[in-house]
Predict the 3D structure of the following.
Amino acid sequence: MELVKDNNVLGKNKFKLLSFSSNIAYSLIDEIDQGILPYVKNYSQYAVDKIDVKELVGDNIRYYLAAKTEGMESHFEKWNVFISEYDLLLKKVLKNGLCSVNPDTLDAMLEELLSGIYSSVNITKSIYKALHYIGSIDTFNSIQEKAIAAPIERVVTIFNPIRLLSYLRRLESINHCLEEWLERAEDGNFEIYRVDDYLIFIIDKYSHLAPRYMLNEDEETYLIEDYERFGNGYFVINTHAANFSAHLSRELPAELVSVVKNYLEVYPYAKDGLDLLFLHCQSTDIVIRSIDELMKRVPSLSKLKLTIHSNQPAQLHKELNNWIELKEEYKSPSFNMMFPKVEINVISEADISEIADEIDEQMNDTDLVVLMDYFGQNGQVRYNFNKVNPLPSNDWFSEPYKEPLSIREALKRIPYVSESLPKTLQHFYQMQYIVHSKSMPSEDELYLLNVTISPTHFSGTLIDFIHEHFNWVMIMDRFIDKSLLQKISSKAQIIQYKSKAGKNKNFKLILSSSKYIRRLSHQTQDYAYYDRLHRKLADILKNDRIRRETVIEAVDKVKDISGALVLKVIGPGKYAHEMLATYLTTKRRDRIDHRENSLTVWSLCDELPWFASNKRRPDLVRSIIYKQDGQLMIDFELIELKFVSHHILDKETLDAIQQIDVGLKEYKHRFSFDDNHADAEYWKSELVYYLVEKQAYLPFEVELLKDLQNTRAQDIKVNFSASVDVYCYTSNLTDQELKEIEKGVYVDTIGDNYCNYIYGRHYILEQLGADEHQVPSYDELFKKDEEFIEPTPMTPNMDEVTSGDNKEVDRENRGKNQKLVVKKIINGMIMSWVITRNL
């Protein structure tokens, strides 16, 4: 392959096509050589029907032609003209290659042909719909060739007119992209941050060829593209996601291993018998791969008790039983244990109460439940045509609109294609609606297929049930996101959310729990969780007058930013410091710096995808989107938080400067849209995706996000700022020479003109509803050679996710001993010894 500009070879490289002989389009070449436009029906391995689409249309309308009704004859002549021209075009392709075809010529042919779809429903169905069949290979469940049935799978090969044109437009678009890169390089404006990520974005942008969907033969179901191979599209019926079980069996185990490792950090005694439920599981392969990965990659797990719920229990039980008989390493018990390493039970009940009874009988400890692609199966989502205002475009690869979830709605719409479509594609997708609805829309209207997800489509009983019965809930699904899950069930409290889970990034991963955060926020009968946090803050601040209502408010506010941070607070480490600083900063900023008609989003930098590879990063970022004089504006403010004693105030301030320096650098590299970098559209799309997936929005905020998607990156004005918020909880700073801007709040300028806001002890207590007449002495905590004893916290530290509940205490008691940590401060270093005593 060579890159040529003005007859000069700028670069060349070799590549190899693997498994090219498996290109299914090869099987149609002989028919095309013979002047046949092939349509293949596979009923079974030995029952194959090959049809000439020319003859198929003639058979469909022969009675109409005889009766001379509906002007069928003129449309049939129009069809025959197209077929003759397209037959010659395909023979040219076989002789000279795909690039010998002029895409504009083929586009004009198709646009002229499909303009006839507005004549009548009957004509569209009998003649123009046959465009589906050219170069297509259908697979049926029925073994009766003459049975009236809809295919469960379809391959739309490169010989299909729409597919061929889309493929040619892809080549054309990639060529334009290369030309733009060359021009930018010549102008010295070819700056790309994270080249590998950008190239993945470009590949993905042009990876989806038309058509993305087709109406099926029963005119009720749809054929949705699953994947592409050599330009050929592999479609599956929307009620039978054939290939997603295979995807899940490859991608679920790795995510499950990560979740289980985190779970064992919180519940360490579960390693002696982890109780795991796979709910609504139909694939043996998923179970087998999950067991293999868990036993291989979680060495501390000595026993796994697995319960599988399925509507095909007999088949699943037989296959798993045959498999486990061959796995001697799983049948044998671990050292000092009487039972096998792996136990598997299969249950089949459909009713929630019956499932609950089975779980009570089969599972001793309800540790973790996994729900796999549940919302993408069994009619849990709806497919509807949605009327849009078509936006004329020449771009065959416009991204579909990403619709945020509205706070006022419980409905999420996911379009398959963009509203900005070339005329040919507008006609083609309109044809799907005409045949489905059996009605004739106006030519000014366009109906496009959407996936619609709503809590009204399914009962929240199942979601409530699993959150009530299990410590953690793991959901891996193509459609459901965290905002919609919380609409379905108020008991779902998010611990962790990955909007692009798995190797292919096709799934969303939600890890949730109903226990810690819910009880903290609502002060139910179990006060232990709330009291524990209250005691922690009281111990830190040496003040027991902190209002409980304020702590609850703080939990609710921070929970909306990061559920994981709230859970970490219960464990060891200074997460209570971080949570309190997060609450105080967001509360003050929202009060003093609120912009009307703007969208404000608070994010924890630890959870932002673009900081994943950075060891240094600030704590918070505030993103504000608004319009000013008709121009879209984005303000990014990066904030480093410090909740410290007065002894280390200066040291922590220097560290804060380094953190925000890194954060500003990262943000400017990515989001300086108005500098018109080559990768600006990529980073805009990443920002849009993050914001849409993060939360639900008010209607005017939804409109701002729509404007963000529809505005070119170079037309967006971006402002960056950074600051440090230091909370000094041990002193009122009366001995410091600082500028006071409000009671208890001081400001200083540090680093590269960053504002350093310093909050004294009095301010912190006042915000928590507490007061005091005398500041306690903290100095004894910093004297050398001081000993103190504290109980080891129940919840261990975790980098990503922590949680826990009363079951953890039960498991601790089973250990029959309690650990104490003796700490001694020697020469400024904390030395620790672990003491174990019998209970």
